[in-house]
Design goal:
By secondary structure, the protein is mainly beta. Among the domains are: about 60 residues, LysM domain (Membrane-bound Lytic Murein Transglycosylase D, Chain A), CATH 3.10.350; about 80 residues, Sandwich (Immunoglobulin-like); about 90 residues, Immunoglobulin-like; about 100 residues, Immunoglobulin-like (Sandwich), CATH 2.60.40.10. It is built from three helices and 43 strands. It has a 17-stranded mixed sheet that branches. Strands 21-27-26-23-24 form a five-stranded mixed sheet, with no helix packed on it.
């Protein structure tokens, strides 16, 4: 069925209601149902140039000046709110936050933040979802006559709305969304409107029914599963078929861990995708509203509960296609903590390391596990009653690879999943070089020591004092031998080993090196001075 909006027209400087005569209608009946006491049947007949006030063919258009009509305010209220949403009340200097149940009047302005959305319910049963980064003004919220024919007009300055217009027995009800580029309106239908305020540009996508899009001096009916785009001052382009719904067959029914990772098959013709998540029990208010260039999205920050995921493709015109929907349950809380120290891949130098993690929201206790395998079949440590965000192992751990993880418990006693597994290695600092030999001549020091593990390097220091506060010389080498000029004064020497990561071990005990003799000595003493000293 086609539903076209009867837009208000100007007559003698005032707006009118155009009523379509139904079988059995007379002017007396219409005046009684719609008119105020001052309006007369004869005046209405002359205004519409009717020959008779009683015999009016069905389908005849009867024009009422709005001043002749019984007008009642039509309620608009916030059915649900998510994220930052504000309203600027009439006469108010500053906007105020919107909460569920708030009511709105003509002239008031709604504004949503980046992650905000609000579901509006109107007195005629219609609903409208105002999405993030949107600004909308309530222009008309009225109902006419005893039959309360709705007249709803909204001005979307920027952003996006999705409307579900309630069916109504009157063909003259009005539901119109104006934008800087044009207007769209319908009854008994579901459609979306997007307004780019800077361009300006209007995008209209019809999901069910038919919408009349007007602008640039032209009105265009758009059937369901079609959409159109209209630039400011230009007529709407011919209706374009909307993209079909993407395939979501691979989605899970239950998720236990955040962030959520959603992915779906790439859709031909889609240049991007809109992903929305709303509580399954709510009337469409959004918890997530995002556009992604790839067929995937990572989502964080949701509370546990039942949700509906909606995904639709966006074509080259910017028109959003039909929704694919998927119901899922999130049961991820209490969240596992984020592990901090030791980080995965770390090399730990202590035999009794202290483990630390970030606090988990809502957690009152933690369970710590340490194991020698990633399967945690036989944990080396399993402590399930920790009240703080750290744990120190009670006994020294031998050097090798270890795995650790932590789970959270909330006040209700519910345990969440374990965190991601973090793996680390205990690798104690390398010992100083062993079996150092020093051969001294009058001009040189010739050093040798035992070879360490592959990749080890060695660090040597010479100092003028045993505390090594005044370095005389310093050198690093990958070899196990070194020849240096012999100092002509008393010095102290020490060495340490650097492992493959460059981490240094401790220095050995300082070795005193005395200067060569400066007075003649017997040859046999020179021979003794040249002997190898093993320290």
């Amino acid at each position: 069925m086609v539903f076209l909006l009867c837009l208000p027209v100007a007559v003698s400087g005032s707006e009118e209601l155009v009523y379509t005569v139904q079988p059995g209608d007379t002017l007396d009946k219409l005046v009684e149902e719609y008119g105020v006491d001052s309006v007369q049947v004869e005046e209405l007949r002359r205004f519409n140039r009717l020959k008779s006030a009683r015999e009016i063919p069905p389908g005849t258009k009867i024009r009422f000046r709005l001043g002749w009509l019984k007008i009642k305010p039509l309620q608009a209220r916030a059915l649900d709110v998510s994220g930052p949403v504000t309203v600027r009340r009439v006469g108010a200097s500053k906007p105020q936050a919107v909460t569920r149940g708030d009511r709105f009047k003509p002239g008031e302005v709604l504004q949503t933040g980046k992650n905000g959305s609000i579901m509006l319910a109107f007195g005629d049963g219609s609903h409208l979802l105002l999405q993030g980064n949107s600004t909308m003004t309530f222009e008309i919220l009225e109902a006419y006559g005893d039959r309360e024919i709705p007249n709803i007009r909204l001005h979307l300055r920027r952003g996006r709305v999705e409307s579900v217009v309630a069916p109504n027995s009157s063909p003259d009800r009005r539901f119109e969304i104006r934008t800087p580029a044009g207007s769209a309106g319908a009854r008994g239908t579901r459609f979306r409107v997007g307004a780019d305020g800077e361009a300006p540009r209007l995008r209209t996508e019809v999901i069910h029914g038919t919408v009349a899009v007007a602008g640039g001096g032209k009105e265009l009916p758009v059937e369901e599963r079609f959409g159109t785009v209209m630039e400011g001052g230009q007529p709407p382009i011919p209706p374009q078929p909307l993209l079909s719904a993407p395939e979501l067959d691979a989605m899970k029914a239950r998720y236990r861990r955040l962030p959520l990772h959603f992915s779906w098959s790439e859709q031909p013709g889609a240049e991007s995708y809109r992903v929305q998540i709303a509580p399954a029990s709510a009337a469409g208010v959004l918890r997530v509203d995002a556009v992604t260039a790839t067929p995937s999205l990572k989502v964080s920050g949701l509370e546990d509960g039942s949700y509906q995921l909606s995904v639709r493709g966006i074509d080259s015109h910017g028109l959003e296609g039909l929704d694919a929907r998927h119901l899922f349950v999130l049961d991820a809380h209490p969240l596992p903590p984020v592990l901090a120290v030791p980080a995965s891949g770390d090399r730990v130098r202590q035999e009794r390391p202290t483990f630390r993690w970030q606090p988990s929201p809502g957690a009152v206790a933690y369970r710590f596990q340490l194991a020698a395998s990633s399967a945690f079949e036989e944990p080396l440590v399993d402590n399930g009653n920790l009240g703080s965000e750290y744990f120190s192992v009670p006994e020294a751990l031998p050097p090798k690879r270890y795995y650790w993880r932590v789970a959270s418990r909330d006040e209700a006693g519910k345990w969440g999943l374990f965190s991601e597994i973090s793996v680390f290695d205990i690798s104690l600092p390398p010992a100083p070089p062993a079996d150092i030999s020093i051969r001294k001549t009058a001009a040189e020091l010739r050093l040798r020591w035992q070879k360490g593990k592959p990749g080890y390097r060695y660090h040597l220091q010479l100092a003028n004092d045993a505390g090594f506060t005044r370095l005389y010389a310093e050198q690093e080498t990958a070899h196990t031998h070194l020849t240096l000029p012999r100092p002509q004064q008393r010095v102290y020497m020490r060495m340490r080993t650097l492992d493959v990561d460059g981490f240094p071990g401790p220095f050995n005990q300082p070795i005193e090196i005395v200067p060569p003799l400066t007075t003649p000595v017997p040859l046999f003493l020179l021979g003794i001075a040249g002997l190898v000293l093993i320290l």
